[in-house]
Structures are given as C-alpha cells and as structure tokens.
Specification:
There is one protein chain. With 1088 residues, the chain is α/β, with parallel strands linked by helices. The strands form five sheets. It has a six-stranded mixed beta sheet with strand order 4-5-6-3-7-8, sandwiched between helices. Strand 16 (842-849) and strand 17 form a beta hairpin. Helix 17 packs parallel to helix 19 (294-300), helix 24 (404-416) crosses helix 25 and helix 28 crosses helix 29 (578-592).
C-alpha cells in the first residue's frame, strides 16, 4: 500500500460547509426548500467523497435529526436529506454499507403520527433498499430481522414485511437468491403470521404468498394459498396434505421447495388422524423421488427420517407401516439421514478469510490506497467497505459462482474504488486479482483425488466450465483440458451427459473453447445429418462446403482408404447400410482435417473388420479425439486417457479402459458383461395358438431375392431360413452384406422380388430396427408412457398397420372390385373381414359383403381367399388379431407401463414425466424395446440393440434375453453380446446366408387340408360355424376359442312351423316368377 495525504479532503468554507447545509435543510420553511438543500448536501458528498459522511459528521447529524422525538419537521427533513443522498449514491456506487444500518430508523418512523414524516420515511427506505445488490441479500435480511425481532412496533414489523415482499419483484437474480434462502425466510414469516396484531399477520401472509411464488415449481404453485394457510394455522395442514395427495408431481424438487414443505410435512406426520398420516407418507415418497441432489436431501430431509421411522415401526395399520417403509427407503436412497446431515457451513470463518484476502491484495505495492491511517485495518471507512465486500465474496465462493463480471463490476470494484487513487479502473484490477485467488483455492479444494493428472504436451484447450441440459446440471465448474495427440474416452452411465458434452463443444456452447478458425473441431455421429442421400457417394462428399477446393482425386483416394471401391463410390448414399454411412462420415472428417475429432459411438453399425481399421487409423494418425463409446475393446485399443464423470466433475485417468478399471474397480461394468449390477426383465411371451411344438416353423423365407432400387446387384440372393419358438439366432456379417435387409424381409417391413415369406397367422413379433429412433421420431413431445399408451390405445399395436408389406398396392386395391360368385350364382364384392375362427388346421374368415347387411355375412376358408388374391387382406387381419391377443388383454394404465419400463432399466420418473426428446440415446433404446415387448410377443428381433447402451445396460439386456422363454433373433457387431445370448449363428456375406453353431432342427408348418368349396364336408363345417355365431362381435376368434363349436342335434319342427315354412317358400317362388330381371331363383333351405 502507498498511503496518500488526506489534507485535501478536509473541506470547509465555500458556500457553506456540510453542517451549514444540514442546518438549512432542517430549518427549510417549505418542502421545495427542503429538497433543494438536500440536493446541495448530496452534491457536496459526491464532490468530497464518501469519507465526508463520517469525517464531517453528515450521517451522525442527519441520524440525530431523524430520531428527534420533539420535532416532526426535523424528522421529515432528515428523511428527505437521506433520500437525496441515496439517489445520488446510485451514480457513485458502493456507498450502501454506510447507510444500511439506518434502515430500522426509517421503518420505525412508519409509526410516526405525522403523515408527511411517514411518507418521507417510506421514500427513504425504498431508496436505500434499491441501492443494495442481490449479492448482499444476507446483509439486507439481517437488518430486516432486527425490525421483526423483539419489541418493535407493529408498524415497523409491517414495514419490514412489505420491504421483504417487494424484493421478489426486483428481478431474476433476486428471486433465485431468495429462493435459496427460503429455509431462513419461511420460519420468520411463519412467526410473523402469529403476531397478535392483525396488520402484521395480514402483511406476513401476503409476503408469504409472494415469497412462495419463488418456488418456480408448477406442481406446488397451485397450492401456494393452501401452503400459506397451513403456515398460519396448523388446523389447515390436513387439507393441504389431501390436496397434495391428488397432485401428480413432475418437476424436480429443489431446496426452496423442501424449505417450505418440510416443516409442514413434519407437522402432518404428527397428526392424530391415521388417514392424514397415510397420505403424508405417500406424498413425501412421491416428492423425494424427484430430489436429485443428495446435498439438498441431506440438508432438508434429515429431520423427517425419525418421524417416518417411528410410523414404520409403530403405526396401528399394516398398510401405513408398509407405506412408511417404502418412503423411508426412498428417503435414505436420496441422501437423507437422521444421524449425518449435510456439512454445516462455517460462514463466519469464510467471511474472515475473504476479508483477509482483500486486505492482503490492497496492502500490496501495486495499488495506491488513500488512507489517513497507518494501516488498512485501522481505517474505519476501509474496514466498513471491505467487511461488506467480504460477506458477498464469501457467499459467491461458497456457491462456486465465479462469474468475472459479477465479482469485478458488482461485488468488489465499486466499493474499493473510493479509497484507491486510480478509482474504478484500479478497483477492477483489485477485483480481478481477488477473483483469481478464490479460483485457485476452489480448484485446489475440488481437484480430482484419484490422481494428480499432468501432461506436458501442447495444450489445445484448458478451461473451466459448467454444463446443463434443460434444468439438469450435468457438470459443475469443472476443468476441460485437451492435449494434442491424446485420445480421450469419455465414460459415464446412460443419461449422464456424455453426448451432450460433445454436442456442446461442436456447437460452440462450451464457454472458453477455441472457435473453429483457431481449433478445427469436427463431430462424427452415428447418422448423416439430413443431407441429400440421392447423390452418389463421391458427389455427396464433394458437395460439402468445407471441401469445395478439395480435388476430386483426393476425395476418391480418401474414400478408397476407408473401403469405398471406385465402383461403390458411384452408388447412392441412400443405399448404404448403417456401417457404410459411418465410414462415409469418417472419410469426410478425414478430408476436412480436424484438429480435434469428436466421435459419438463410432463403432455403432461397424463390422469387426471396419472397427479394426478405425482403431488402426486413429492410433497411426496420432489424431486428437474425444470419444463416447460403449465398445470396451475399442476404448482399450484406442484411448490414452479416460475422462470420467464423478460428482458433476471431469476426472482424468491416464491409460486405456483396462488401466482405468484397475484404478476404479466400481467401473468394472464398462469392461465385462458379467460384472453388470443391472438386471432387466422382459414380459413373458404369449402362447401361440395352434403351435404345440417348439421346433415348428413360425417364420420362414424360401428362395427369396431382394434388390434395392438403383443398385447393380441383389442384396439377398436365393435366401432360405426359418425360425421356431426355440430359436436363438445371431446374425453376423460385414457392413452392407444384407443383415438388416434379411430381418426386414422376415418381419414384413419389405417385400422380396421373388420367393415366399411365411409367418404364423397368430404370431406377434417384437421388432427393434437398426435405427431404433425411427419408431419414436414422430412422438418426441410425448413421455415414454404416453407413447406406449398411444401405440396400443386401440387394443392392438398401431405400428403393425404401417408395415410396407401390409399396405395395399394399386393392383391389390383393384382386386377389391373383383366379384366372387357364390354357390347360387350370386355375385358379391368383399368389403372387409370382420372375424376369424379355426377350421381344422387352418382358419376361416367372416366376410362383410359390400352393399349387404351384416346378416348376409358368410364364412370363407383362408385358402379360398388367398386363391382369389386377397392375401394382403388376410395378412392384415391376422396381424391385427395377433396383436389384439397380446395387447387387448391388458389395461393400458400408466402404472403398468411404468413398471414394465422400470424392469428394462428406465427410471420410472423419467418414463412418466420426461419427454422423449430429452432422453439420451440409451434411454430411447429402452423405450423402443419396452414398446415392442408390451404386447407379449412370442419372438423378439433386435437389430443392433447394443448401440447407445452402456456396458451395464448391455449386460442387463443379455441377462433378460437369456431368462426370457421366447424366440430371439439378434444382429450385432458386439461379438461378446451375440455369443452370450445366441448359440446359433447365421452368417450373411455378399447376399448369401450360411448357418453355423448349434443349429435348431425346424419342422415345416403342416399344410392345412381344407375341404374344397362347395363340397359336402365344407358345407357342413360352414353350417356348424354359422349356426353358432350370432354376430361378428361374438366370433370364436375374439373369444379365444381354438376349435369350432360342437354342432347340436337338429330339433324336429312342429306342425305349425312346417306350415309357416311352406307359406314362406310359396311366397318366395311367387316373387321369383313375377321378377322380370331374370335373376336365379333363391334355393330353399332348412333355415328359411
């Protein structure tokens, strides 16, 4: 510190010293004279500096006048003088530490008998409070608590409550900080609500309503009046609990919400009514499920644990004890404990430390401090300012809020500038140095404990940042350090924000990350980003804006290096498989020449050879990469470092995945399937009507050929295969070999150009496509539960009707106009099928004829309908009936769907409350698998199911498949996973299918021997079926019958019935004789 003389600051004379101005102010005859003298005083202070407030006795004189009980004029004039000083202080800045202790005086004057005094006092209080920044909220609240405590007048208390309520309206920063302090504010308000003066109680209730609006929780917002009423009167607590029990909680429960609710719930748990206790325990359990921060749980929920424990052990009703046991488990898992609470903050020591840092910086020779004292500590003006600043700095450091603009421009510079020769600019330098000291201390305190991570290579970036997705904080003030040539594997569980980090870097949303013109960063994802896929491969790459000046020969060379032959480079991009598309993206990134390559699941869709090529390329080119991958082998061979998410921080470990696991054994699940701690379970498969043998073929391809339009050769050539209920098949092969095309043929997603496809009429197939997200891409605004409810809301799987093989072509639609000639020669047109039932070893279908009433419906054998060309119509109805048998027997309730998704490893609250658009890739895959399994399929077909799933989830999926009793067919490049679940392997290469491993012996489905139409046997079968069916709604197929009803013995007609029958036949013959159209005569039957 370089002290400077203050002789020039001792000002007197001129046009009157400050005491002369104050005397004129107090004796001013009119209000305008009073305001004029007040402005003179404010101008004097601005000119002479804040030291004049104490050295020239300005505050002392005005304070004495404001508390002069003998003169109302002086009290009013003093308030007017202070108001002018406060207004002028807005432009000066950093003055309120000297004025804040005066706030109780102004609030006390609100009880003055004179109206003008009360008005002046209120104006002065408002001007003073307006000077205080949000960062000094604690100092302001401490002053207000003085006015609410003890024997203060009721007008003073009411004034303090009005000021407190008004803070809510001062902006977002104020609301956020007040919300974090609700734990301190609410008890004060609750105490004020019970004040004997109704004016204070009313003001407290109004303030509480304003304060509770800070909760920013839509589930609680509608209950704010009930919350306030319960604070005011304990008798209202049961009504509040009842209202909360009928609320579906969706939003995250934060500290402010718990600060308000916990005291009320604690009171409710002590109610005498067992019904109130039961509802309270349930509400508490639902709320705690949405508490995501263990520190918040430890801070607020600990006091509830003993009460819930007591109810669990001593409640009279078993039901309540069971609810309490569940809630106690939820409380403990959230982080609450009756014995160990969140670390108590020692704020006093933090403030002393902050003041010491500030004094040490100011004492250095770099700054010119203006002070009459020998040291800073002996200067009362500096001591007042630095104590005020230290409180704000301590709070910001505790919150780990190190925003430079806030620290320098708001918290430090305005206050220290008053005693620095360089003024505000020198004050900013002081603020920056103080911030750097606090940052260094914070980084040491939060440094990774696993190991000291150092690397002397060239730093590409070294920054501190935070990362959030929506309202969820993923990383909090952590360091991102990337060194050239290092290959970082980003490891964390599903939904922790790995892909979000890469996308934030790609989009330039990580504060401080070098821009593209300084550090070229390219991201390679699992799918092309919506470009024109009708172009040829080489034209597609050449059209990239970053490669405009790249020679076409260089592009062709790069494509050739990743496996695209000269011939294949001319293929359309849209014809590529998922693996080839990934190679295309990698080739484009290579050509752009990235400094940093961001790889999001790069091995998804890649075959073994392609993965090996990628590993070698990344290692040999010494590329700097950040990769997210669930392929442990890839991470082992490529990574030089692991970047691990721990407590919302990035912790760095040298070495590959194996070395990382050796240091962090809990991460073993990243490495082996056997180490997984997650266990999934699938709904049991439904029974397949008519199939009594597990080796009977239920799906079959025979001599199928398929070729995509625009490709030179077929993707599948003369393929024959079959699946039974006991099949466990893994399909392997290189990229583009036709694996996914084979699955699409089997499931009916596509139609072969030649060959036959057979699927059992009652078979339900759970199918998850290679690009699994296409199942849900039209429903991203729904929650997972809402999506599944939509999909099955009609009692069947709505996706079944969208299959390409089940949609009518123009030729097939024209067949609906084809006329069918009946036994009598009558011609009819099929309108649709409305029923189905067994006919020996096949089925017959109830046909609704166009233009005829339902009573004219007839039954036709399946083979006859197919012979007439109605194959697609029959298949559509078979799919619908099979789906109904699975989904139609279920209640489409949210609880049932939630339970199923929880069994698949998806958090129940995420399933019920989060939109699909906000889920991670792994979470979306679980939703798609759950939707496919909801109607209890007999066979599950999974195309690349391990993409986006972390290692633990892959292990859980393998466990679920092995324990499931249905048939399974899997495509995956994860050989460890395939061999863990599939003993039979189908190899697809160049469109040819070969089988190996434990090949299941499959019997062909027996041909149904159906009697010919018009034969006596067919007539008897149709007659028996029709006589036992009153309507389509009561068909045997819908009632679950597997065989036609037993024919009853024909009843002999009475004499009157015979006469009536003869009369009807005579009338019908007469009508035919008089008919001029020449229509054939309707034959006589036994039933007419």
């Amino acid at each position: 510190m370089s002290p400077i003389s203050l002789a020039d600051l001792s000002i007197s004379g001129g046009e009157g010293g400050p005491q002369d101005i104050i005397a004129a102010l107090l004796k001013a005859p009119t209000a305008s004279d009073c305001r004029r003298e007040a402005e003179r005083l404010a101008a004097h202070v601005e000119k002479t500096g804040i030291r004049s407030l104490e050295s020239q006795g300005i505050i002392a004189s005005l304070r004495s006048a404001a508390t002069n009980k003998k003169s109302g004029y002086e009290r009013e004039s003093a308030c007017v003088g202070f108001s002018s000083l406060f207004r002028r202080a807005r432009t000066i800045g950093g003055v309120e530490p000297f004025f804040l202790p005066l706030l109780p005086i102004f609030l006390d004057l609100l009880s003055d008998k004179g109206d003008v005094v009360r008005e002046a006092a209120q104006a002065a209080a408002d001007e003073l409070v307006a000077l205080v920044p949000a960062e000094a909220l604690r100092a302001l609240l401490a002053t207000l608590w003085e006015c609410l405590d003890g024997g203060a007048k009721w007008q003073t208390k009411r004034g303090a409550l009005v000021v407190l309520g008004g803070l809510v309206k001062r902006g977002e920063d104020w609301r956020n900080r007040m919300g974090e302090m609700l734990g301190e504010i609410v008890p004060r308000l609750e105490s004020a609500m019970h004040d004997t003066k109704s004016e204070v109680s009313t003001a407290a209730k109004k303030c509480a309503r304003d304060i509770c609006a800070l909760l920013q929780n839509p589930d609680i917002a509608k209950h704010v009046p009930a919350l306030v009423a319960s604070m005011a009167s304990p008798s209202n607590v049961p009504a509040l609990v009842k209202a909360l029990s009928s609320t579906t909680f969706v939003a995250e429960v934060t500290g402010p919400v718990l600060a308000v609710l916990v005291p009320l719930l604690t009171r409710a748990l002590k109610e005498k009514s067992m019904e109130t206790i039961r509802m309270t325990v349930i509400v508490l359990g639902n709320l705690v499920k949405l508490v995501r921060d263990p520190q918040v749980a430890a801070r607020y929920l600990g006091e509830l644990v003993p009460s819930v424990q007591s109810i669990k052990e001593n409640a009279a009703f078993p039901e309540i004890r069971a609810f309490a046991a569940t809630t106690l488990s939820i409380l403990l898992s959230a982080g609450a404990s009756s014995t160990s609470v969140a670390t108590t903050r020692s704020r006093g020591a933090e403030v002393v430390t902050a003041a010491g840092v500030l004094h040490r910086v100011l004492s250095s020779d770099k700054y010119k401090v203006v002070s009459p004292a020998a040291s800073i500590e002996q200067d009362s003006v500096i001591a007042t300012s630095t104590a005020y600043v230290a409180e704000m700095a301590a709070d910001l450091a505790y919150e780990r809020d190190f925003d430079e603009k806030r620290w320098v421009d708001v918290v430090i510079a305005p206050y220290v500038a008053h005693f620095l020769q360089g003024g505000r600019e020198e004050g900013k330098a002081v603020g920056k140095e103080v911030l750097d000291i606090f940052l260094e201390v914070d980084q040491r305190a939060n440094a990774q404990s696993a190991e000291e991570y150092e690397d002397d290579g060239e730093e590409l970036c070294n920054l501190v940042f935070s990362l959030a997705y929506g309202g969820l904080l993923l990383l909090n003030h952590t360091r991102l350090r990337i060194v050239r040539g290092r290959r970082y594997g980003v490891c964390a569980g599903n939904g922790k924000g790995k892909s979000t980090l890469l996308k934030a870097i790609r989009d330039g949303k990580v504060e401080g990350f070098p821009p593209q013109d300084k550090l070229r960063t390219i991201m390679v994802e699992h799918a092309l980003q919506g470009e024109d896929t009708s172009l040829s491969i080489i034209d597609f790459i050449a059209a990239d804006p970053n490669l405009v000046n790249t020679p076409r020969s260089k592009i062709a060379e790069a494509l050739l290096s990743v496996g695209f032959s000269d011939e294949k480079q001319q293929d359309q991009v849209g014809s590529l498989s998922g693996g080839w598309k990934m190679k295309l993206e990698l080739a484009r990134a290579m050509l752009v020449g990235a400094d940093v390559l961001l790889l999001d699941e790069p091995t998804n869709h890649l075959d073994v050879q392609s993965v090996a090529w990628l590993e070698n390329w990344l290692v040999s080119n010494n590329t700097t990469i950040l990769t997210v991958s669930h392929d442990s082998g890839f991470l082992d061979k490529v990574c030089t470092d692991i970047m691990h998410y721990e407590d919302k921080r990035l912790v760095y470990y040298k070495g590959n995945l194996s070395q990382f696991v050796a240091k962090v054994p809990a991460a073993q699940a990243y490495y082996t399937l056997e180490a997984t701690t997650i266990k999934f379970s699938f709904p049991p498969p439904g029974s397949l009507m008519g199939v009594r043998s597990n080796t009977r073929a239920i799906m079959k391809l025979k001599d199928c050929v398929f070729q995509y339009p625009g490709t030179p050769r077929p993707q599948l050539n003369s393929v024959s295969c079959a699946l039974s209920l006991s099949s466990r098949v893994g399909i392997l092969g290189p990229n583009g070999a036709g694996k996914s095309t084979l699955i699409k043929l089997i499931t009916g997603e596509t139609i072969p150009q030649s060959g036959s496809v057979y699927k059992h009429p009652n078979l339900r197939v759970g199918y998850v496509a290679q690009h699994a997200f296409h199942h849900i891409e039209q429903h991203l605004e729904k929650t997972p539960i809402q999506y599944i409810q939509w999909r099955y809301q009609d009692g069947h799987d709505r996706e079944v009707t969208e299959k390409a093989s089940r949609k009518m072509t123009a030729e097939e639609a024209a067949l609906m106009e084809k006329e069918i000639v009946g036994k009598t020669g009558e011609k009819r047109k099929v309108e649709f099928i409305i029923g189905r039932q067994k006919l020996k070893k096949s089925y017959q279908y109830e046909i609704k004829w166009r233009g005829l009433d339902h009573r004219y419906n007839t039954w036709m054998p399946r083979e006859d309908l197919i012979e007439h060309g109605f194959t697609k119509l029959v298949q559509q109805f078979d799919d619908l009936e099979a789906s109904r048998e699975g989904a139609g027997q279920k209640e489409n309730k949210a609880d049932n769907i939630r339970k199923m998704l929880e069994d698949l490893g998806l958090d129940g609250d995420i399933a019920q409350y989060n939109e699909i658009s906000g889920l991670s890739g792994g979470q979306k895959v679980k939703v798609v698998i759950g939707a496919a399994m909801y109607n209890n399929p007999q066979i599950l077909i999974l195309d690349e199911p391990t993409n986006f799933l972390d290692r633990e989830s892959v292990g859980g999926l393998a466990t679920a498949i092995n324990e499931w009793t249905g048939a399974v067919c899997v495509i995956s490049h994860n050989l460890e996973f395939v061999h863990a679940v599939c003993p039979e392997i189908w190899n697809v290469d160049a469109g040819v299918l070969t089988q190996e491993g434990k090949i299941t012996q499959i019997e062909d489905a027996p041909e149904a021997k159906t009697p010919k139409t018009g034969s006596r046997a067919a007539s008897r079968a149709a007659s028996r079926a029709a006589s036992n069916q009153n309507s389509a709604a009561n068909s045997a197929a819908e009632d679950g019958a597997s065989t036609p009803p037993v024919a009853r013995k024909k009843k002999k007609k009475t004499r009157n019935e015979i006469k009536a029958q003869e009369a009807r036949r005579a009338a019908r013959k007469l009508k035919w004789l008089s008919d001029s159209t020449g229509a054939p005569r309707e034959p006589d039957t036994e039933s007419d």
